[in-house]
Batch of 2 targets.
Target 1
Amino acid sequence: MQRREPYGSRLCDGKQIAAHYNAYTAFSAVARGLRAGRHTLEIVADNRFSPESALHVPNDYMSYGGVSRPVLAEQVGSCYIERIRVTPFRREGAWLARAEIFVSNLSERAPVSLRLRIGETERLLPPARLADGLNVFAAEISCPGARAWSPQDPALYTVTAILEKEGEAFDDLIDRFGFREIAIEGKRILLNGAPLYIRGVCRHEDHPQYGCALPFAAMAYDLQLVKSLGANSVRTAHYPNDERFLDLCDELGILVWEENHARGLSLEQMQNPRFEQQAEEVTREMVEQHYNHPSIYIWGILNECASDSEYGKACYAKQFDLIRSLDQSRPRSFASCKFKTDICFDLPEVVSYNIYPQWYHDTPAGEYLADLYGWVQRETGGAGKPFLITEVGAGGIYGYRSAYKAKWGEEYQADTLRDQLEAILSFPDCSGVYIWQFADIRISEEWWGTRPRTMNNKGIFDEYRRPKLCFESVRACFQNRP
Amino acid sequence: MQRREPYGSRLCDGKQIAAHYNAYTAFSAVARGLRAGRHTLEIVADNRFSPESALHVPNDYMSYGGVSRPVLAEQVGSCYIERIRVTPFRREGAWLARAEIFVSNLSERAPVSLRLRIGETERLLPPARLADGLNVFAAEISCPGARAWSPQDPALYTVTAILEKEGEAFDDLIDRFGFREIAIEGKRILLNGAPLYIRGVCRHEDHPQYGCALPFAAMAYDLQLVKSLGANSVRTAHYPNDERFLDLCDELGILVWEENHARGLSLEQMQNPRFEQQAEEVTREMVEQHYNHPSIYIWGILNECASDSEYGKACYAKQFDLIRSLDQSRPRSFASCKFKTDICFDLPEVVSYNIYPQWYHDTPAGEYLADLYGWVQRETGGAGKPFLITEVGAGGIYGYRSAYKAKWGEEYQADTLRDQLEAILSFPDCSGVYIWQFADIRISEEWWGTRPRTMNNKGIFDEYRRPKLCFESVRACFQNRP
Amino acid sequence: MQRREPYGSRLCDGKQIAAHYNAYTAFSAVARGLRAGRHTLEIVADNRFSPESALHVPNDYMSYGGVSRPVLAEQVGSCYIERIRVTPFRREGAWLARAEIFVSNLSERAPVSLRLRIGETERLLPPARLADGLNVFAAEISCPGARAWSPQDPALYTVTAILEKEGEAFDDLIDRFGFREIAIEGKRILLNGAPLYIRGVCRHEDHPQYGCALPFAAMAYDLQLVKSLGANSVRTAHYPNDERFLDLCDELGILVWEENHARGLSLEQMQNPRFEQQAEEVTREMVEQHYNHPSIYIWGILNECASDSEYGKACYAKQFDLIRSLDQSRPRSFASCKFKTDICFDLPEVVSYNIYPQWYHDTPAGEYLADLYGWVQRETGGAGKPFLITEVGAGGIYGYRSAYKAKWGEEYQADTLRDQLEAILSFPDCSGVYIWQFADIRISEEWWGTRPRTMNNKGIFDEYRRPKLCFESVRACFQNRP
Amino acid sequence: MQRREPYGSRLCDGKQIAAHYNAYTAFSAVARGLRAGRHTLEIVADNRFSPESALHVPNDYMSYGGVSRPVLAEQVGSCYIERIRVTPFRREGAWLARAEIFVSNLSERAPVSLRLRIGETERLLPPARLADGLNVFAAEISCPGARAWSPQDPALYTVTAILEKEGEAFDDLIDRFGFREIAIEGKRILLNGAPLYIRGVCRHEDHPQYGCALPFAAMAYDLQLVKSLGANSVRTAHYPNDERFLDLCDELGILVWEENHARGLSLEQMQNPRFEQQAEEVTREMVEQHYNHPSIYIWGILNECASDSEYGKACYAKQFDLIRSLDQSRPRSFASCKFKTDICFDLPEVVSYNIYPQWYHDTPAGEYLADLYGWVQRETGGAGKPFLITEVGAGGIYGYRSAYKAKWGEEYQADTLRDQLEAILSFPDCSGVYIWQFADIRISEEWWGTRPRTMNNKGIFDEYRRPKLCFESVRACFQNRP
């Protein structure tokens, strides 16, 4: 569907031609001046934990090693199209698309022209001589009859860019996007002008047979299960996802909260000297690489990090600024677990909380939510903003059933999720909820103490995608919500 | 087999006639002056946690409520035999028994005489006028042909005491005991002069169908399983056990470490103003009620309590003194988890440790044990004493199998137990080992966080007594040890 | 509660003093002329399958060996009371009881008198000289204020018989019974004049820890579960049960269909030359031994045997005649699986069928039931009689869950039981239903081919008494039936 | 890797352009004369059971519906290469390859020439004018330095065919093959002259997430597991497999028994009037499509069909003849379950039996095998031929463990497989063994009665690919066999 780039760090014929931090965003490398014949391309992947790595730390999910997403080799000429960025918008009731085409110039000296096609409309931009490195072509194209993308009707369009020299095409790139606008209006998130209500699940890339490297059929299977639950959204906790997964969400009309790579970093971990740069990279790459996906309606950052400290707040602010500089079309948020000590709610457009009533504490969900929400409105910069629950859930070990409803039993999980969801879904000022989590996942061995089976067992499905008893209670709650 | 007394607190026709602390030792009550007709006996059992109760605290086992051991009503006359204490000993190669008969006098004024029978030997003690309350008759009886009790040949004898008035019997009591002596010689524990090697399991009174109130058939089933493992001992962690269980151990030749009621009390919990008296009561009752069981070869106290503090040490000393005052025939110990900070090893005859190498930490068992043992010998009052491992083990959730041997999987548990046992069983200065634990048990709900299924899953059997994969590795280790 | 008799065949000091066929009824033996001293009583139990045994055959339940019910030794004098038979009945609105006391005379030559006590009423029967062997005393006692026994109020009374010689008591026996009458009126079974509706379960004596020798606590546990289902009856398929179980049913108000020992015998198996006598014995012993239990409201015979053949019919007739000669107070029935070929429905008072719609065939339960019932009314001697479903059910392997509702999954079982029960409970001419079965049971190894786990998996509970998913659907059906 | 063809029956713009029987072989369709613009290609797949279909019948595996293998659309010109058939052979110690290139001519009138490349060697065949329909080019190419393919060194080579017109390439096809020869010598099967010993598993295409449509990653996962067992072969019971799976076997050096589509057809089912033609089609397509795979060392037909009847024998003979006409390079066999009644062993080169000692009967494996083998040698046309066990195994329900080793428990399965394998692997005249089966599979609902979970549970792995206890016993047996 789209040009895809390899992940990792790379050696060509034994010589390093690229290095890249982070497992969850793509990178590319150009090997220049190769003669005809056999060449060797090596990818060296390193998943060791160390102070060198600020984001990959022992965590409540598994950090697998190796090359876990597709690799593609392509022959390029003197210049080539690197990516296209399409921003749909509405003007006077009709759809338009602003396209920016990023062309990488290796050695081209002659003028090149760019042909752009969106749907049935084609435009030939005037020839230009390229600077070295990155060049941007831009155009605004009116698409009067375009169908809007929505969960109910996930209409997709292709954008085609073709580089020509003297009328002869020599490079092209096709990408896909949808016509839709996200906006914030008071306490509501609007999609094409109508309020969104999120019934979502958080999902890790994890499978007992494939680790984090799920084949396409497994991704599609997961999304069928998500739909069978009556859910309309997925949160890609806690890192940018495989682009094929996002493609499927685009096609199926599943809204996506995409998140940069960070989970539960303490203040001390955020003070790692590498943190700022590594987080900047993954965030930039996430937004640039996934910009065109209509399913992504929000960017999330820094899940459960130190948003209760001044140092932390500076980091949150910097990352939010970066996202805004790269994308003016989507709201931003972060999932907080700092309860009444969070000091960052003035920064994003949407206030989000991870809560676990009746699991990590005994306060009933409704009471807990009302108390928390009241505090946000009265005492924080988040007052008046849309409000999301980004995690709620309970552990349940598949096959462990308890007639007396012990914790970790499937019955307790089912009852607790029902109680939590009923409280949240009926809370008037809430824009939606994400359940933690779609399916059980493997975790870092270091976390075994509080994680039966050395797994996080809060899945609605177990790791083999078998529905637990809570499947029915979640589905009933999601379907009863208009 | 023996007169058994009810547990709890009691009301007779609505009037309180007795109160008793602790669920794990028996008590009796005499209702006096009842007229002929129907009467009501009520037992009020209270299992709430509160500061009133120093020993029953939320813990790594379940504190069930209700009446969980047998209740017996008996009609007594003006005086009756309360209990018999038999102490076997060897003199010039032959067995003797010293019997003390405790007679409770309610209102008898005439002289009574006591007839005593052990095996085939009978002795009539001269008549005596009884004081009010408790009176003691004592006699030493020579039993020249007696067979010694041992695990290989658990020969049991009965002692019969009969109260007579003017040649007419009016009360009797029959109890059972065995001829055997326990001694300490250097680093060895001796049974009838030969060194003991303990291959044991710790066991809670717990069953999914009966809570802590196991019927006799369920106890017998458990002990069959213990034998099938090749084990020769049970530790009644962490409280005195049902006397029928001890009867079975006597009959089957299973050695018992019986323990008073306490588990993991912190210094603060030991400082509860009720602690001293409540612990004194359960300890006294345990020793008095279970004195005659030949299977009990050692008394344990205060498992994993604050033996690293001066305050704690004073408590340990007081309890050890109490035991010695009640029983001069058995060694004493306690199971420590204080590693190199324990200061109490000068007090008991046997040094005991609970260790969990490769479970709670990664140091291999052999290395860990050698280090610990070296410290005890070099730096503590425990030097030169017998040394036991009173707990070793790993969690394994029945049915959770992990090809990559994750923690909580049955494979990991099996491998870890094998590694632990091989290290311990081949450690020359160790007198034996208890595995934690016989079977999975239910725990206090408050402990759910680190306890999958709200259970302690370190059983060799699950709660339904199904063998886990570790059954085979434990059996192999136990059988390979001569 | 009652005198209990040992089971098996017996040797006293190596000499055979009794022989007994069948594992499911009690027998006794008198050892005469023993001198003072030690004697040996041996019980030899033989559970081999062979042509010698017509009733114990490889079957859909396990035939365990050994002594599986209690054994009691008692010292008797020259004569003793063997049993009491109490028949309650109503005359002019008040309860009476006819008591027959069976006295066994070994050697008594002097006249003896019998004192009889029911509730508060006592009667001294005139002295009589006993014949050798069995003698019967009889009396009718009026009990004007007696409370009737019913499931709602299971009031029990004791009957005491005392043998006296010259005013001196020398033997007694206490038994228990209840005041209640069973009658048939048209298509209804009446208990104390009101129609009964049976919501029952079939239950085998089986447990993974104890085989068929369940301890009392395990029986009580099972009956708690039966009550938790909203059931009011148990069918003791396919043999007479342990008397302690019947005692508990009496106390808890659980109605019992007690059944003689036979399951699925083919015509050929019924033609075993031993069949007639062996079946006669177990039937006679069942009725005689369990006559007093108020909970037993019906006698069943010959489950799923050859009731479609003339030979078979003669056997059914003979057994029904025997029962009537022993007991005129209860109706009789048999559970048929012969569908439209059964020829025995003219014999009993109640017509009963075992059916498995949607399990062994695909016809929906309602349609199947209507068809079968119509045939019985139109074409058999069972027309106009009460009609029971004595088995209905489906297999479900605990822990096997199937999102697509495959057979053997818990979901399929839950749905099927709900469909079956809804059809039956709403069928107007049906007097009730027994679910096959209470809990999963072990079977004869020979039956493994169609029995996953070498067990019958149709239990509402698994063998460990864990509720399957169908527990909720059964409970809902039972509770919704007025 | 290879041109792949779609499966099913096809409509182009609503007009039928192809029909095809059988789900397990590929077919293609050419849509002619399409104008530029959008066209619709529909595939209608029908998996209903009916007398129309002789091979798809309710069976011990699931017949899924839909399109379960890849579909590919390709634009072809006036003529195109349909397939290449490569036959490697050795002459005077050096490898050669005979290539036949099948060219389909739609409308080409001008002469075309064919360029052929194997490894480094290229040959240009002289131009020729094509007949309508299928044309064959053939050439023999000497490959002196070629590495032989073997399980230890699965060296693969590509063959490239290019169609040229006037020196201009306009169609090509690349396929892959290996240099190896299979031969029969007495009782041995030889690979490149050395005797083969088969340690194999039978495998169905089945997975709980994907039905029979496993993605490539799932196939690769399965083959990793096969290798982890120490196995060297897979039997594609009971139909031709997805070509990507065969590609992986080629690459991994896993020998393949590929089998046409038929399982357990009775004489009556073989007499279905459609049987002969439908079987002929799948057999022809299997051999033609998979001819080049070096991993396939034998063709199997008609598993467990009526090889004990004359009618059946005629069918077997016809299919064997067909295979021989299409492929002279591989031996042929069939898996019999007719024991001493089979009459077809004179037909194939290899005699094969499916046996289940200690599962379906109680005769020990060694005794059973010796008896059967003796009969084959003494009384059949199979005497002196290589002898394979094509199925052996036992059912084991994952997670069902039985301390008393009941059938269906994992322990019984592990012990039985070990006993079976030890007998077979030490039987001197046996060329190897296939275990039934790799993993548990779903079956046709009609077979539920003898199939717990409505699945065939004889897998070494369960359906989720979790190793059962037998994994270790199988691996030990396979690894101990030199």
Note: The longest strand of chain D covers residues 79-91.
Target 2
Amino acid sequence: MSHIHYQELDKTPANHIALSPISFIKRAATYFSDMTSVIYHKQKFTWKQTYQRSCQLAHALHKQGIKIGDTVSALSPNTPALIEAHYGVAMAGAVLNTINMRLDNNTIGYILQHSDCKLLLVDAQFIEMATNAIEQNNLSITVIRIDDLHENISSHLGDMEYETFIAQGESDYLWQMPEDEWQAIALNYTSGTSGKPKGVVYHHRGSYLMSMGSVAAWQMPMHPKYLYTVPLFHCNGWGYIWTIALLGGTFVCVRNISTELIFNHIAQHKITHFGGAPIILGMLVNADENEKIKIKHLDYQVKVMTAGAPPPAPILASMAAMNFQVMQVYGLTETYGHISHCLWRQKWDKLTTNEQAEIQSWQGMSFPMNEEIGLMDKNGNLIPYSPSQQEQNGEIVIRGNTVMKGYYKNKKATQEAFNGGWFHSEDIAVWQEDSYLKVKDRLKDIIISGGENISSVEVEGILYKHPAVAYAAVVAQEDDKWGEIPAAFIELKKNFENAPPSLQEIQDFCRQHLSSFKIPKAVKFEELPKTATGKIQKFKLRSSIK
Amino acid sequence: MSHIHYQELDKTPANHIALSPISFIKRAATYFSDMTSVIYHKQKFTWKQTYQRSCQLAHALHKQGIKIGDTVSALSPNTPALIEAHYGVAMAGAVLNTINMRLDNNTIGYILQHSDCKLLLVDAQFIEMATNAIEQNNLSITVIRIDDLHENISSHLGDMEYETFIAQGESDYLWQMPEDEWQAIALNYTSGTSGKPKGVVYHHRGSYLMSMGSVAAWQMPMHPKYLYTVPLFHCNGWGYIWTIALLGGTFVCVRNISTELIFNHIAQHKITHFGGAPIILGMLVNADENEKIKIKHLDYQVKVMTAGAPPPAPILASMAAMNFQVMQVYGLTETYGHISHCLWRQKWDKLTTNEQAEIQSWQGMSFPMNEEIGLMDKNGNLIPYSPSQQEQNGEIVIRGNTVMKGYYKNKKATQEAFNGGWFHSEDIAVWQEDSYLKVKDRLKDIIISGGENISSVEVEGILYKHPAVAYAAVVAQEDDKWGEIPAAFIELKKNFENAPPSLQEIQDFCRQHLSSFKIPKAVKFEELPKTATGKIQKFKLRSSIK
């Protein structure tokens, strides 16, 4: 009986509002109106200004004919305009498709076409490439050019300049919250490791929950000063585009990343948080002392989030010495960015530096807004956590409200990714203590030699300990006898370039730490191909030895 | 076209899970299994144990025939069992109705009946009252008694003791998450401002979002040590029953609150956070120096949340001197507890102590998970914020996902509360700088005494039953200890004018009908000021006792 009475109570406009991160923008404009939202060079915006400019953009888009569910693409480094684009496009009910501007012309053309892009916001630095891509594909797209007066980057291409465009909109435009929190908010293409990039669709609900979860997981205080080194085209900058609004924080923008800029910005703006691929950490550690000295006076720890290949122990130790607190996170484009983090435990304080570095390389535990992370064996069975099973490999599978809606116009890939009611990451991991995860390898990067699994990540971890090694990548090389054998590609540190170690020396070094079947049978010294964000492009290495 | 493609992507078990705070309990058991969840006297539970005991409770309830949407009531101080009840009852899909055990027998009987309670968990201290209430109302309710071995409180009444009851359940019981996040999770009765108490229904979605929002608003770190001074029967302890699980924190339980206990617990368990009515703050400030000295060595600030009548400036100054950081919050039972907080701004650091105390008494800005707080004039128009309009009174109106589902079995009151698409708080406030709110008065003259709401209408109703009373009005009188106390003004019937009843007589009469905290502490006999139409002018009475 009681059941029925509870059910009688319906949703009303007073007690049910679609979850959407644009709510945080409005709140920031209400309560943090005079606080600084964005800093870029000498320009500073307040939250009131950022909000009003975003309203103008939303209104201008509306006047331009952009409707709910239309795709608006953006091709830009992390500038104030790209921040406004995240807010204004969502306020217009449209879907923001931020594109990696380091991609080649063809791929950008493919994305603009496949995404059904109606309008493109493009930084002047990339407008020539963009207009070429549009012409070559015969696309009908309105092009809004963003000139950068601070860096003297401008052009005459495109239909209109950004400032002229948003001037058409009113700063008090009455935008609407989405009626349905399942409505799409963003479309982010994967890097396309196998074939064409896939369009990952985010919804308002997920972006809202990612913001909330990040505050709890990273233990963020109000008013953080956030250096936006993570490109917004990666999972909308890991969702911090919304999180910082929630917290009334400040974005500090950079067009290009350099150690000098990072140290300068930290010192000048008292940066509290930033994120970066391990390559950024390496750059900071190896920077000149006269750059590092700029942050010597800081009386607080700068929190740094990193993802991807785990940083080697010496890098972590050096980061700690510079008063950086590094936390490893894990996630994919399909999960709105990070959904696990290596939360530090007090009990680990007493371990040695190397033991601590090993733990810091773990991908850790689930973010609070993510529901479940499991490990699945080849037969589709979950591998339960047990401290004694730390060697059983499994695929990371994920359930949660920050898992994508699906792939845009790709039902087959969507169904495969959600097979059995879990999102399949294609990453291989093992359980560590306290149900923490440690990623062993990408499913496709596992090397199977003589029936034995070899984790390329494990071998790379050893290679990184060798004093001459700057970067290392291990891939499978076909072999008549063993099926596959591990082959190593090594980029040497500058001071070893003229005196590289021998194959024998590398193998002897590995032998001290690895089973013999895991020792690279071939070693090649060369500069490694990397993505814009510093990820080593193993597929290029793989094809080079085929 | 793109619109359609975005819509094609349906919800799946991988990417859409009902928001529910019981997710946090499971996560705590997974990742914080060996950490302390609950401390009560010398007993400590880990999160694994608390989770397992909650599973046992859920299973035992299931075996007892409790189904989704059934009401399970609880009448208990903040003990480990009441914490488990929050988790276990929700895991069973049932709705937890925590009852204020300070209420009188009749009101408790009314709530047990009106709530359609199927099973009652009751602390042994209150079982006699509870069984009486059940008998008097001819209710058919299974009674599970909770003995307290730490304080030697036990009984033989009831159908079964709690430990025996949960021993019937398995610790690995496969409970289910709710299918629909709109499903009811809790039923919390208001104090009954006008007539009978109303049953406020919470849903899983709201309790989940309150937890997330509290972390951000109170800037809570991981693993807080939370002294549970706020009764769980108030909005499920302002939602911290879930928040602490989210953060892998520790509850420290107390049966009765005393300054000695609070100082001892803070020192012994290194309490980081607690909440309390202003009366608790007053008690702490006025405590003996030999109690206060116990926390002198603390090297951190204890964060204290307070709600209700704003604490006076000297209290706040003394709290600060003791290294307590006090934050004023505002909310109602209908909003799951707090939905606004007086977030401190750096710019206020330079003000005088009195100016700071004035600001600290503001109800402040919206929590992040709450969507909107507005002020509405008598004509139903929103009063826009403007720094120059700080004297225009308006009713606080609220929109958000932490606004109740509605009142249980009371469609009329539900519709009235949600009139015009806003929840009407019946509290009167004005705007302050930065869109902060300051509550001026309560529409219905609620008296807040020791953190408990007293409806003047209810007390007046009793007074009117006394044979000597012609007219009665009850207003709040300021009180150093209790914040406010109820003061009664009585106009006697003609034939009693020469032989008025004594204060004692009036109080004894009230005691037959009212909980003791509602009994007027002062009574004055006089002709009451009335309007032309005979309405009593309470504001005149209020000013006469200031």
Note: Residues 21 and 208 of chain A are 5 Å apart (CA to CA).
